[in-house]
Amino acid sequence: MSERLLVIDCATPALSLALFDGFSCIAARHEELGRGHAEALLPAIAALPEGGRCDRILVDIGPGSFTGVRVGLAAAMALGFAWQVPVAGYGCLDLVCAMARAQLVPDTPFAVVMVGGHGELFWTLCQPGDHPAADPLAEMRSTPISELAATLDVPLLVGSGAQTLVRAGAPGTAVPMLPDAREIFLLHERQRSRPAKPVYGRGADAKPMAARPGVAVR
């Protein structure tokens, strides 16, 4: 009997779910919500065959939206506990990089650029190649938009932040792309076996009251 896998991805504006029986996708949902993942995620899982019941869960651990990463992980861990199944993670940039290799077949190094919030972009450099699951060339970074536009010089920019970067003056062609749970098997098994812990990519949005200018804490 083949294993059932549920993939949950809501670290970006996309709400993306896929239920696999072995390597066959038997149900999926992929749409760009923007906001509202917390309200939409569990009903979307419940609408899958048998309520999405599976033998294993994979979840996008980021980097991405702070709220989206937390919502996805919370749902995955709660379902894993309720169903008594293992939960593992995969990286947002890894999946977009693999999707770009498979769909665009670039012949030169390219960058995956995702919206990071607070005027910054998450990004990494990727090498072209025949195997979509090859690791990125560099560690993920979070960089202010203007700084990255002035320094990053590659012919292809892929991801939710690609158009933003080109509008800010970066050279290259922008191709918008969001992670798609249906493409999870483009990743190598080791890339699909990361701990289910958040990768936020930068400091927290919220600051303690004592750290906010002009706020006195008694």
Give a quick precis of the structure.
The protein is α/β, with parallel strands linked by helices and 218 residues long. 25% of the residues lie in helices and 26% in strands.
Can you put this structure into words, describing what you see?
This protein is α/β, with parallel strands linked by helices and 218 residues long. The chain has 2 domains: 4-91 and 179-192, Nucleotidyltransferase, domain 5, CATH 3.30.420; 92-175, Nucleotidyltransferase, domain 5, CATH 3.30.420. It is 25% helix and 26% strand. The protein has a 5-stranded mixed beta sheet. Strands 8-7-6-9-10 form a 5-stranded mixed beta sheet. Helix 1 runs parallel beside helix 2. The chain starts with a strand and ends in a 43-residue tail after the last strand. The model is unreliable at 206-218 (pLDDT under 50).
The Cα radius of gyration reads: 18 Å
Average pLDDT number? 90
User: pLDDT below 50 for ≥5 consecutive residues: which ranges?
Assistant: 206-218
Q: What's the end-to-end separation, in Å? A: 62 Å
Roughly what percent helix?
10-25%
The H-level CATH homologous superfamily of the largest domain, spelled out, is ATPase, nucleotide binding domain
What is the total domain count? 2
Q: Tell me how many strands there are.
A: 10
SS-derived structural category: alpha/beta
Question: Order of SSEs, N→C?
Answer: EEEHEHEHEEEHEHE
Strand order of the largest sheet: 3-2-1-4-5
| Tally of alpha and pi helices | 5
Q: Output the CATH topology of the largest domain.
A: Nucleotidyltransferase, domain 5
Beta-strand fraction estimate: 25-35%
Q: The biggest beta sheet, please?
A: 5 strands, mixed
